[in-house]
Amino acid sequence: MKHQKSIELISIFELKEFDLTKMSDIKVIKKDGKVVEFKPKKIFKACKAAGTSKEIADKVTKLVVEDLHKIKSKTIREKTLERLKELDKDAADNWIKHDIEHTKYEDNNNILKF
Q1: Is residue 86 situated within a structural domain?
Q2: Which residue intervals of the chain are DSSP H helices?
Q3: Per-residue pLDDT tens for 43-93?
Q4: The domain containing residue 35 runs over which residues?
Q5: Is-above-0.70 flag for pTM?
Q6: How many angstroms separate the CA atoms of 59 and 17, rounded?
Q7: What's the domain count of the chain?
Q8: Same structural domain, 53 and 78
Q9: Residue 10 CA to chain centroid, in angstroms?
Q10: Is 19 exposed, middle or buried (0-12, 13-18, 19+ CB in 10 A)?
């Protein structure tokens, strides 16, 4: 089992514990297409540069980091169908047909966009 690296962040983000292993797994695609490691400190610095207090910058940073560890099942489904369609359009179409026939969705038109 991989050893989890944690660090106490006292004044930078006011997060009790921050899992560096998980954060280093998150990648950011920059405007120029370059892929870089996610660095929460950049959020903090950008908030401070915008003129907010340290407390607000800390809170915003913490909330964004927490949000990155949450993903809606709908988003996973959409990404899965998007990739499946790229690799096997027939299978993606079958999945969508199954959804329409066997599942009640609030907006069936949204399913058809794939």
Answers
A1: yes
A2: 20-25, 40-49, 54-68, 73-87, 89-102, 108-111
A3: 999 999 999 999 999 999 999 988 888 888 888 889 999 999 999 999 999
A4: 6-68
A5: no
A6: 14
A7: 2
A8: no
A9: 25
A10: middle
Q: How far is CA 25 from the centre of its chain?
A: 11
Q: Is residue 24 part of a domain?
A: yes
106: alpha, beta or left, given left = phi > 0 and alpha = psi -120 to 50?
alpha
* 82 and 50 part of one domain: no
In a domain, 1, yes or no: no
| Residue 43 one-letter amino acid | I
Asked if 60 and 101 sit in the same domain, the reply is no
Q: Of 24, 75, 26, give the one whose Cα is nearest residue 83.
A: 75
Residue 99 is encoded by which pair of tokens? 């959804």
In Å, what is the CA distance from 110 to each residue of 23, 43, 72, 105? 32, 33, 16, 9
65: which 2 tokens?
């980091």
87 belongs to a structural domain: yes
Q: What is the residue-averaged pLDDT of the chain? A: 78
Do 77 and 33 share a domain, yes or no?
A: no
Contacts of 22 (CB under 8 A, 6+ apart): 69
